Amino acid sequence: MSDLILQTIVNAVYAASYMSLIAVGLVLIFGVMGVINFAHGELYMAGAYVVVALYAESGMPFLVAVVLGLVFVGLLGLLMEISLFRPLRDNPLGGLIASIGFLLILQTTAVLGFGVRMAHIPPPTQEKIELLNGVVLTHQRLLVIIASVALLSLLYLFLHRTKYGWAMRACAQDREAAALQGISLSQVSRLAMFIGAGLAGVAGALTAPLVSPTPYMGHSVIVTAFIIIIVGGIGQLEGAIVAAILYAFVHTFVTTFFDGVIADITGLLLMLMVLVIKPTGLFGAKDRV
Amino acid sequence: MSQAILEVRDLTRTFGGLTAVNRLNFSVSPGSVHGLIGPNGAGKTTTFNVISGFYAPTTGQVIYQGKNVSGMTTVSLARIGLIRTFQGTTLFKEFTVLDNVKIGFHGSVRSTLIAQVLGADREELAAIEKQADELIEFFGLADLRNELAANLSHGHQRALGIAVALAAQPKVLLLDEPFTGMNPEETSRMMTLVRSVRDRGVTIMLVEHDMHAIMGLCDKITVMNFGSLLTEGTPQQVRTNPKVIEAYLGSAIDAA
Amino acid sequence: MSRGKVNPWLWVAGIVLLATLIALPFGLSFSQREVAVLLVINVLLVSSYRLMTLTGEWSLGHVVIMGVGAYASALFSKRLGVPVPISMLLGAVTAGAVAALLSFPLFRMKGFYFLIGSFAAGEVIRLIWKYFTNPFGGPKGLKLIPGFPDIGPISFFEPLPYYYLCLIVVGMSLFFLYRIERSRIGLTFHAIHWQDKLAESVGVNTFSYRMLAFVLASTFAGLCGALYVHYIGTINPNRFDVEEMVFVLIWAIVGGTATFYGPILGVVVLTVINEVILRALGFDTARPMIYGFILIASVLFLPNGLESLVPKLQAWRTSRRTAPEGTPASEEKA
């Protein structure tokens, strides 16, 4: 029994790591641009399919495919910003609707290019670490955990140590004030969209060998990401990470000891509860005067 | 002096560690125009928001017609005749002048929802429309009856705002900075309007930043500073009170 | 146009429209008739959705609520043997009741939060259908759901009679929805949308009215579900997933939601494009992508929807402008 609990903890840590990447990306986009990106799950899917195309089908090294996945999906984000979100800057509902349109386009592109069936990806490594008797952490999952921690640390340093990071945080606090300070909103938005999308893409690329991608995999991802950002407080980067860990543990444990559907329901009810009781999120700002 | 229609007893409202209103007491006589003034940050807007049900008091009470109404919502207060207006030109800008006033009559509607959908409330609608037209006339907006509120001049929008509130049949009308941003001509027109509303038997309490604008209007003025009662009296008494002058001068220096 | 008198051209247009709707199926193939049945149902679905949006809140749970009506009506008729016409009404009522319950948590939220909250509530309902095989049939859903009973020689198994049945039910419902909007209730909905604080200040209980809009919209969505399920005969949770919701959004956005006819215009035009043009071109798998492009293009280039073209068309047809009348927000919305 204790082995099962330990194994579940290991699984939850893995889930928390890539969910954090996705949720932080979504929060970054929302914080800076004020738009909910419904296509975020499809950006994750796009990252996974970059690995399908470059690694599984063309034989490129896995890690190279992952990096290219980050860059490619980041560029997709840039495309979204330039073609959709910038023209719709004063229309947040319009931005959301446009992102739904983009979602359909990405999904159909994947269907046309790769078919609707699950893509099979040969695992880059079969090795695993046996932590205790029976408690296993595969190298592939370990890689996801390490990469997530590394990327989030890099992001933290970027946001807190560089001029661009500072500008981005200023925009997330108050866009108008930031603009008055001479920060270029367009530049910061492009950057936020590149990073936010890139994080979703790299999460998809890293986990691709573990999940068997389908063109419709984005749906459950966006639901999860919404739960996390609502629980963590919309616009709160640290909150998103804490909420991702919380959600991953709750979901993994309920899945292991009850059932996947019950776990999904639990997650959604958790989010509804937060929405009702404290809509600013568990880690969100307190009510202002 | 008759019994107060509205009374604030020991009212305190804090936000986190900040005390916006501190043990405030005052009372409003029926049929009067009562001013609540004070320099920036004196707590008058918070007081206004507590009275109008936007915030609950931290401690203390708001008494309306002898009944404790502290913590009641804006909607319930409106139902019993305590109606507030908003700063600036808060209106249904996408509606015509007539429809704005018609919404104001919400509390007068007696027809059931089903009757409304089936159109069985025709008589009531006609009666409301007639009353609305009278109000529109009263506020000098008759020519603009079918104009969108957004297209009205600033002064007309302010008048319409009060017409909407008056349609809700207030016993006490709470006006939130009715003179702010008005030129002298608009101000004098608004003063006439407020007086004529008072003459219809409505008690008026108004919050105002600009002390001079309401000197000629109010029967009694309550002056706040730093969340507390500074002084209270007739315009003449307030005008000559050195503490008031000091408070306003102090804030003028702060603002400079 | 003087008050009380209806423009005679409107009568002519109405009669022509009615005649077209009655004659339409005769010009269609069997499969096109089936599409026509679904189109009529979808007209009510998107119109009921618009009623909800009048108060300013956009729900992502509308299709799931439609599903509540469908599941309820299916279960009432299949499990309890309730006659289908009555089970349909019960389905609609159930959908309204579920909406009433959901109002309590959901209307503590506004804007984006409401959007996400309604989405979450909808997903919870769908997961409940998936999880509880008894009575909902689990992921495979329900099959062999009884159809609408024959009336004399008329069999509603055929698309043609069912089309007329839907036409009557939907026509009556649309009339009802139209009456709601034109009544004082509709004016109050608009008022809450534009200035909820001001509405509250004159005694409008915004929660009750938001709930009323949600319950009414959901009741009609439930009716749509019931009409749908007794025609198709089978349902499963995925029929009511977020993709389907996206279609309702697309119809509403492309058509525009400022007028009563906007969303109807949207669903009719897009269905015709979908069924006639795209099917003829054979772009079956690519269809969602084309929908995506249409959605983006309409948000970018036609932000007020197809309906915004109508006044332009009118202005072009006649130089005379009629004075705006009745509910102002239905005339011009920025």
Question: What keywords describe this structure?
Answer:
heterotrimer; B: 256 residues; alpha/beta; Rossmann fold; 2 domains; six-stranded mixed beta sheet; four-stranded antiparallel beta sheet; 39% helix; 23% strand; C: 334 residues; mainly alpha; 14 helices; disordered C terminus
Oligomerization status of the protein chains:
heterotrimer
CATH superfamily of the largest domain in chain B: P-loop containing nucleotide triphosphate hydrolases
Whole-number radius of gyration of chain B?
19 Å
The CATH architecture name of the largest domain in chain B reads 3-Layer(aba) Sandwich
Tally of alpha and pi helices of chain B: 10
The biggest beta sheet of chain A is recorded as: 2 strands, antiparallel
Q: DSSP strand (E) fraction of chain A?
A: under 5%
Please, could you describe this protein's structure?
The complex is a heterotrimer of chains A (289), B (256) and C (334). Chain A is mostly helical and 289 residues long. Chain A contains 11 helices and 2 strands. In chain A, helix 1 crosses helix 6 and helix 2 packs across helix 8. The radius of gyration of chain A is 19 Å and the shape is globular. Chain A starts with a helix and ends in a 12-residue tail after the last helix. The mean pLDDT of chain A is 90. By secondary structure, chain B is an alpha/beta fold. In chain B, helix 5 crosses helix 6 and helix 6 runs parallel beside helix 7. Chain B is globular. Chain C is an all-alpha fold. Chain C has 2 domains: 211 residues, no CATH class; 94 residues, no CATH class. Chain C is built from 14 helices and no strands. In chain C, helix 2 runs antiparallel to helix 10.
